Amino acid sequence: MIKRFSIVALLLLTFGATHAQDFPYGKHNPSDFLSNKAKVDSTADAEVIREFGTGQIQKDDQTGRLYIDYHYHVKIKIINAEGFKSGDIEIPLRIYNNAADEMYDFKATSYYHDNGSIQQNDVDPKRVFTENKNRYLKLVKFTMPNLKPGSVIEYSYRLKRQSIFNFTSWEFQGDIPKQHSEFIALIPANYNFNVSLRGSRGLTSQNGVVQRECLRIGANGMDCSKMTYIMKDVAAFKEEAYMTTASNFKSVINFELSDVHHADGGRSNITRSWKDVDYELTSDRSFGGQMKQKDLFAAKMPEILKDATDSLSKAKAVFAYIKDRIKWNNYLGKYSEKDVKKALEARSGNIGDINLALISALNAAGFNPDAVILSTRQNGVVGDLYPVITEFDYVIAKLNIGGTDYLLDASEPLLPFGLLPMRCLNGKGRVVNFKKASYWFDIKASQKDAVKYNLVAKLDTDGKIKGTLYTFSSGYNAYHKRERIAEAGSIDAYVQQFDEQNPSFEITKHEVINVDSLDKILEERYEITIDQFEGTDYSKLFYNPNFLNRIASNPFKLNERSYPVDMGAATETRVSMILTLPEKFEFAEAPKDIAIGLSQNGGRYQTVTKLDDTMLSFSGLLQLNKPVYTPEEYLSLKEFYSKIIQQQKIDLILQKTK
């Protein structure tokens, strides 16, 4: 859930000259040490006692530039040894146009109550390290010293943030519960910000007053709106399988600059219409300018298209050419980093270089492709109320052939035409074209994540099962297997790893087909031997047909989940087994087949087992027909998996006939 509102200083009704209410550093209540359980969640390993922060626009007197003065202060109770990880601290420093945030006024201390006195240990500045994470981020890292169960840790710092556009964000909800989280934003009256509160929790309280002359530019003193946001008794955010980035769902408040009123009466709109953004993108040399570079490919097209016979095969030939010519350098981006020509020469580039080159090449081949900007799963969802171009971190191509839309990303060599990397599957993208207005388009997987196992085998009197295992993989399942084959270095090495990971059987012969034919199903054929029994002279034999695909544990463990289950794509697993038995065997008890489903055709699981003379057959099907399940469907999905796990534990019991 996202709640949006706007800070407009001129409309505030309360006036005053109050100051941010930080709590004193190094002063503690006896209860901070006496309690051996967290207040908000008695099962927590650590808990924030109090957290406070402020953000304020200030002017650098030396450079004349505006910046954000950000202050952070927190006190945390360590409940047990598992909570020690809360003492491993990382402080992000963003980098904007080669100018990084600057940290100062740093202090960090751990405390422990010992025989009536409080023992204090300060963090040694020599043990504070800065890691260059990437070109846009640095991390200040340190570990709180001498932690014990019952310790209290405290640290504070200030940042000089170089960009005022996004002001700052405040995360009310984190990995551990919080008793009290408070943030104060002081924003000059001539700056209007759009504010969004993300997450399922509401604020405990919020308040706004006017603070006089909080910022002075030249001879002009400006009043500020002082907004205080408080959230109390905040449960920890618990991550679980099948989710996009946690920042999509934690309770967080975000600020985005909307417009600025100047002293001369003028006004600059920062938040623009999509028409403005369309013009900005198409006229930008690093975006629209790179989409027009078809002259780079015109001379090469006869060779690229020499074997193509129709529009689809032409598009696939161009797609394959770009995949082969430009290797992804592992950097995202909706803009070209080098420009298409340099990326082609270097045979390397970011996502913008690759997919804008793809669009140019498709133009040169006579197509009319569009660009689609999107936000990746780890970057978070984008809002659709007003355009914020910085929310997008990726670009792909969209191509219509014969009435079918294909979404294309040439950055992954092992993905087939029309199947996007999983990182792209994050809701909607914005289609950008030179000739028409941009529009939203749903980003969906074009194929299921599918696998089929087929075992044809015979149980010999020595107790060994010998036969052939066929595996057919498509969609993301085939992609991940092709990745593992590439990482292993050869098919033989991949099969050896597969054999080692499955001690229940031995592979004696193998064949893997269509490894390089990405548009075809990946086929694996294995001659296998299973040492199932020590002979067959037993009154009963126990056999479980789920030896390859058994679900060992339920991925859904929460009592409730406030965010969707996002698998990215629909999935399907089929199992088929035909096992020839020695004569004179029957079921000791008839196996109980199962057929269960989720509501609204959300998925199903079914098994069918038969014994016809000496022929034992088993088939199983697990389908999850939706890429995304709502929080309201969570408990049904959890119960669905629980029933599957119980069913897959049950052995088939065979006995000799009399």
TrEMBL record:
Gene3D superfamilies listed in its UniProt record: 2.60.120.1130, 2.60.40.3140, 3.10.620.30
InterPro entries recorded: DUF3857 (IPR024618), Transglutaminase-like (IPR002931)
Transglutaminase-like domain mapped to chain residues: 303-367
Keywords: Signal
Endpoints of the signal sequence: 1-20
DUF3857 domain segment(s): 69-198
Protein name stated in the entry: DUF3857 domain-containing protein
Source organism of the structure: Pedobacter quisquiliarum
